[in-house]
Automatic annotation (TrEMBL):
GO terms for molecular function: polygalacturonase activity; rhamnogalacturonan alpha-L-rhamnopyranosyl-(1->4)-alpha-D-galactopyranosyluronide lyase activity. Keywords: Disulfide bond, Glycoprotein, Glycosidase, Hydrolase. This is Uncharacterized protein. Belongs to the glycosyl hydrolase 28 family. It comes from the Eukaryota. The keyword Chaperone does not apply. GO terms for biological process: carbohydrate metabolic process. SUPFAM superfamilies: Pectin lyase-like.
Amino acid sequence: SVSILDYGAISGDSSNEAAWSNSAAITKAVLVANSSTDRTVLVPAGYDFYIFEVEFSHLYEITLTIDGNLYVSNNITEWPTTNENHILAALYIGDSSKITINGTGLFDGQGYDWWWYVIVTTIDDRPMLVAMERVSDLLIHGVTFKNSPQYHLDIRDIKNVHIHSIDILVDVTKQKQLLQEHGLLNELGIPTFPLNTDGIDPQGINILIENVTIVNFDDAIAVKPQSGSNYFSSC
């Protein structure tokens, strides 16, 4: 496997500089794997890496194994507010095939600060945790996804997908306290201000999602329509 440590990843440092370095290290490692015989990129166990946006397109037969911990930087003002080319996400993959995300590690969006920011400012430029468009033959299993700023897995216009044996967890207690403090819960404890921390939002064809644990304060799995304007469509 190709370790991100070999490309300058810095563990245990939440600074902006380290987070950008880690995004660059992941990018380099994936691009190397995409042009070599060893097509597995490793986030090694026992390390914590803070990241900003990482984006890819035209990957083929790539495995990203997350055995360590990835944390989305919560330095909100350092984040871009949008991406002109695609969905804003901590990890974005577009126009690719035979993609696997697996491992025993954690992908943590550190969403609390983002939720607080949206409620207080009403400005909502939050990234997704993972977003994909026009990806076929996708396999995701093993990893724990936690506290995304917005959707955890926003996967659009996809084909031949198997997602299984993953956990998607939101700190519901913290989220509830935050909403309650700002009068955004009704008498039944239901949010009146949606923070949109959806679990999985799939849009596509031939998708199997099974054996997943999703604990959040929003949609667990929200299936979106696939139409004739999409790449993978016969309508």
